[in-house]
Amino acid sequence: MKPALIVHGGSGSVPPNADERQAACERAADSAWALLQRGASALDAVEEALRRLEDEPVLNAGTGSDLQADGVIRMDVSLMAWDGRAGAVAQVPGLKNPVRLARYILEQETHVMLSGQEALQLGLRVGLEPAAAATPAKVTYWREHLDAAGQRLDYVAMAAGWKRDNAARLGTVGCVALDAEGRLAAGTSTGGTALCYPGRVGDTAVIGAGTYCTRLAGVSMTGLGERMLVLLSAKRFCDRVQEGLAVDRAARAVLEELSHLTPGVAGLIGINVNGGIVSMHDTPFMVTSERPS
Fold it and tell me: Considering only the top CATH level, what class is 4-291?
């Protein structure tokens, strides 16, 4: 089996720093691909790619995470392997690489998801590195875009504004990999939606919504997480592959389902067990990098 890998750096409106985002994805893909070339597992490669993406200040995950309306960073991550093992964290603050905690949870094979301060405390207890402060760019964005509704944490007014600005608020990073043994893995990590209501959980942390993996296919979603949550879009993709669809047709079917709720707000990357790779989006922009290229 020939290994394959694809990473994404989020979808949404066209950003002014598209080249920087592409370069960040290339660096993450190179690092994960080097592991696969040395015989590492798909799960190791996905964790490595996400860790590298979380270290990129320009992306909305880990170091580059956006701030919620109350000025706090809370991160969501999920990992899933071909054999059904999964690990996730929701709304965890204060960890440099939350993907490492998701991997720890996956390996325990007891719980699937931990959240909030309790997840942070576990991460610190098992030796994970705490996060530095938010980047100056993300703090500046928060200060410049926090309106009166956000200052009051007025959910009704905040929700109205958010609905008008869906495309500009999309983010997330992800990776899917196939190793030389034919094993698949997928993962997704995000700082969430900038200026959202504190504690908001999107699709990323939820197995089946933002990330899913089977023996036949793996997928990472990006976009408006609320829509992917209600449709369990990641699992829908893998179900379609199970039914016999090629990855491009499965991806198109999932995006069409999402567009019936809200058009133009989603993207995905996926790989099947035969090494077929797909990258598809209906947003104006999505950045990806795949190997072999």
Answer: alpha beta
CB 186 within 8 A of CB 46: yes
In sequence order, the β-bridge partners of residue 178 are: 4, 184
Torsion of CA 225, 77, 244, 29, to 10 degrees: 110
Tens of pLDDT along the chain (293 residues) come to 899 999 999 998 898 899 999 999 999 999 999 999 999 999 999 999 999 999 999 999 999 999 999 999 999 999 999 999 999 999 999 999 999 999 999 999 999 999 999 999 999 999 999 998 899 999 999 999 999 999 999 999 888 877 776 545 567 999 999 999 999 999 999 999 899 999 999 999 999 999 999 999 999 999 999 999 999 999 999 999 999 999 999 999 999 999 999 898 999 999 999 999 999 999 999 999 999 97
* Residues with catalytic function: 172
How far from 272 is each of 35, 94, 203, 229, 238, CA to CA, in Å? Answer: 19, 35, 21, 22, 9
How many helices and strands, by DSSP H and E, does the chain display? 10, 11
Q: Please report, for the chain, the start and end positions of each structural domain, with discontinuous segments joined by +.
A: 4-291
Strands (E), 96-182: 113-115, 173-178
Based on the number of CB atoms within 10 Å of its own CB, is 236 exposed (0-12), middle (13-18) or buried (19 or more)?
buried
pTM reported for the whole predicted model = 0.96
Residues with Cβ within 8 Å of residue 144, at least 6 apart in sequence? none
